Amino acid sequence: MRRGRKCGVLPNRRLAWQAAAILGCTAATALGGDPASPTSMFAPESTPAHSIYDISIFVLEISGAIFVVVAALLVYAVVKFRQRRNDDDTEPAQVYGSNQIELAWTVIPVLIVVVLFLSTAQVIHRVQDARRPPGALDVTVVGHQFWWEYRYTQFGFEAANELHVPVSTESERAPTFLTLLSADTDHSFWVPRLAGKTDLIPNRTNKTWINPQQTGLYLGQCAQYCGTEHAQMLLRVYVQPRAEFDRWVREQQQPAILEPSVAEGRRVFDTTACINCHTVRGTVANGRFGPDLTHLMSRETLAAGIIANNAANLREWIRNPDAVKPGSLMPAMNLSDAELDQVTAYLLTLH
């Protein structure tokens, strides 16, 4: 699968730049950076993002025209009526009650507001009331402190932090409709190149949709302050060709493969509080508080996108989550070095 270009690389430890990763890449684009950045709102690749981009440019053009007219009149007045040496300081002739002037500065702003209102309402209607075509994908997104849960109810499995969707082409429309829920506090789902911000609010169901038209990796961010690690609640959306997406779905539907060589690590995992929070399908682990780990190693990142998913980072994450992501709700299990090695070896088999 072709991946989008990344702004920087994932570190092996928590770094401060993660807090501004999304805004930093977007600002770089505005200042002449790469418009194909995975986070650039100036390179939309989905119908909702295109609609938002178009109305934004339209508003900017109107605002720019108003600015140019007002600035030009101001410069004209400053230059033409500037004080001269031979001025007698008398007040110039005053004009009151001009119907033409009164009509101009009343009617023109009203017309501008009406045009902007109607244009915005049209975009809102087109995005929020889009018709659902047959065969569309449904995914329920649940925001947690501080990670993302994705429920593929059509296919009977759950994933975490990395959303996979099929590409939508002219010949095969494949939009993804997202139902947005929150497990705790307010969150906001925002992938700039795919759609606008939509909040996830406790006890309320919100919806949005995307239809990415290019394969690749698209990055996003929780855009609503949700607690200590809000800035490191990152989003990764993988847009895949249909055949590749279908293969990924089949793999995710499989239960965990139980490797005899890591039986001791599985025993440690199954006899600690890990199973109270995490699910590993095909085992006794059926927790609901943390991410589903059935296919943990099929993901590229850990801790909602802040570190690469490899053996060293996984071991450190299990040993002391707060050292990687301070404020995360995952507790340190106080395992011995031997137990850490065994559990890490077990989790590395969960593909």
Q: Could you characterize what this model shows?
A:
The protein has 351 residues and is of the alpha+beta class. It folds into 3 domains: 47-80 and 96-128; 137-253, Cupredoxins -  blue copper proteins (Immunoglobulin-like, Sandwich), CATH 2.60.40.420; 260-347, Immunoglobulin-like (Sandwich), CATH 2.60.40.420. Helix content is 35%, strand content 17%. The protein is built from 9 helices and 12 strands. The protein has helices at 21-30, 47-80, 99-128, 242-253, 263-270, 274-277, 311-319, 321-324, 337-347; strands at 137-144, 147-152, 157-160, 162-166, 176-182, 187-190, 198-200, 206-210, 216-222, 234-240, 301-302, 307-308. It has a 5-stranded mixed beta sheet with strand order 3-2-1-5-8. A 5-stranded mixed beta sheet has the order 4-10-9-6-7. Helix 2 runs antiparallel to helix 3 (99-128), helix 5 (263-270) packs across helix 9 and helix 7 packs across helix 9. The two termini are 18 Å apart. Residues 1-33 have low confidence and may be disordered.
